[in-house]
Amino acid sequence: MATITLRYNANNLIAKKTVDYVLSLGLFEKTDSSNPFAESDNDIKNGRVYTAKNADDLINQCLKQ
């Protein structure tokens, strides 16, 4: 999954309606950017965190993927 960050003037009616339209298509989702650790917390909850015994183990795990 890729992440795209959009910055726009929330007071600009055309920009706001455009973003609302794109979100209404159902192809994209809005994420909460107020919590910078939300994505990390989500990774931890879904088991996408890896641990390594040492640097060699870390390199071997990275090369497997």
Description:
With 65 residues, this protein is an all-alpha fold. It has one domain. It is built from three helices and no strands. The protein is elongated and about 55 Å long.
Helical residues, percent: 40-55%
Could you give a short account of the major beta sheet? Answer: none
Number of helices: 3
Briefly note the structural class of the backbone.
Answer: mainly alpha
Radius of gyration: 18 Å
The number of domains: 1
- β-strand amount: under 5%
- Form type: elongated
Give short descriptive properties of this protein.
mainly alpha, 46% helix, single chain, 3 helices, 65 residues
Describe the structure in brief:
With 65 residues, the protein is mainly alpha-helical. The protein has helices at 13-24, 38-45, 55-64.
What layout of secondary structure does this protein have?
Elements (H helix, E strand, L loop, with lengths): L12 H12 L13 H8 L9 H10 L1
